[in-house]
Write a structure and sequence with these properties.
Radius of gyration: 13 Å
Number of strands: 0
Order of helices and strands: HHHH
Shape: globular
Number of helices: 4
Distance between the termini: 44 Å
Structural class: mainly alpha
Amino acid sequence: KKHGFGLPFGPWAVRDAALNALAAESLRGVAARGLVRQEFIDSLLTRRLKEHAGYYGEMVWILMMLEQWLRRHAPDYRLA
Protein backbone atom coordinates (compact mmCIF):
# COMPACT_ATOMS: atom_id res chain seq x y z
CA LYS A 1 0.00 0.00 0.00
CA LYS A 2 1.03 3.54 -0.61
CA HIS A 3 1.55 5.68 2.44
CA GLY A 4 2.20 9.40 2.47
CA PHE A 5 4.38 11.24 4.89
CA GLY A 6 4.14 14.64 6.48
CA LEU A 7 6.29 17.55 5.46
CA PRO A 8 7.91 19.16 8.53
CA PHE A 9 7.09 22.61 7.19
CA GLY A 10 6.22 24.11 10.59
CA PRO A 11 9.55 23.34 12.24
CA TRP A 12 11.37 24.50 9.10
CA ALA A 13 9.41 27.77 9.03
CA VAL A 14 10.14 28.44 12.70
CA ARG A 15 13.89 27.84 12.27
CA ASP A 16 14.47 29.43 8.85
CA ALA A 17 13.96 33.21 8.73
CA ALA A 18 13.67 33.38 4.94
CA LEU A 19 11.03 30.64 4.82
CA ASN A 20 9.16 32.28 7.68
CA ALA A 21 9.21 35.61 5.82
CA LEU A 22 7.88 33.97 2.64
CA ALA A 23 5.11 32.27 4.61
CA ALA A 24 4.17 35.50 6.40
CA GLU A 25 4.10 37.47 3.16
CA SER A 26 1.98 34.81 1.46
CA LEU A 27 -0.48 34.63 4.34
CA ARG A 28 -0.85 38.41 4.32
CA GLY A 29 -1.90 37.99 0.69
CA VAL A 30 -4.60 35.47 1.63
CA ALA A 31 -5.91 37.91 4.23
CA ALA A 32 -5.83 40.84 1.78
CA ARG A 33 -8.00 38.80 -0.60
CA GLY A 34 -10.60 38.48 2.15
CA LEU A 35 -10.28 34.70 2.39
CA VAL A 36 -9.05 34.61 6.00
CA ARG A 37 -9.26 37.21 8.75
CA GLN A 38 -6.06 39.12 9.41
CA GLU A 39 -6.43 38.49 13.16
CA PHE A 40 -6.29 34.75 12.54
CA ILE A 41 -3.18 35.10 10.36
CA ASP A 42 -1.48 37.22 13.02
CA SER A 43 -2.29 34.66 15.70
CA LEU A 44 -1.18 31.78 13.50
CA LEU A 45 2.19 33.32 12.71
CA THR A 46 3.07 34.98 16.00
CA ARG A 47 1.78 32.50 18.53
CA ARG A 48 0.33 29.23 17.28
CA LEU A 49 3.09 28.25 14.85
CA LYS A 50 5.76 28.81 17.49
CA GLU A 51 3.85 26.84 20.16
CA HIS A 52 2.89 23.86 17.95
CA ALA A 53 4.95 24.02 14.76
CA GLY A 54 4.21 20.46 13.73
CA TYR A 55 0.46 20.94 13.98
CA TYR A 56 -0.03 24.47 12.66
CA GLY A 57 2.71 24.19 10.05
CA GLU A 58 0.36 22.21 7.83
CA MET A 59 -2.20 25.01 7.93
CA VAL A 60 0.45 27.61 7.11
CA TRP A 61 1.66 25.44 4.22
CA ILE A 62 -1.85 25.04 2.77
CA LEU A 63 -2.64 28.75 2.99
CA MET A 64 0.76 29.65 1.60
CA MET A 65 0.31 27.34 -1.40
CA LEU A 66 -3.21 28.69 -1.97
CA GLU A 67 -1.84 32.23 -2.18
CA GLN A 68 1.00 31.19 -4.47
CA TRP A 69 -1.47 29.38 -6.77
CA LEU A 70 -3.82 32.38 -6.83
CA ARG A 71 -0.95 34.72 -7.70
CA ARG A 72 -0.18 32.61 -10.72
CA HIS A 73 -3.67 31.67 -11.89
CA ALA A 74 -6.08 34.29 -10.51
CA PRO A 75 -4.06 37.34 -9.41
CA ASP A 76 -7.11 39.62 -9.23
CA TYR A 77 -9.26 37.25 -7.17
CA ARG A 78 -10.86 38.88 -4.13
CA LEU A 79 -13.72 37.67 -1.98
CA ALA A 80 -16.39 40.35 -2.23
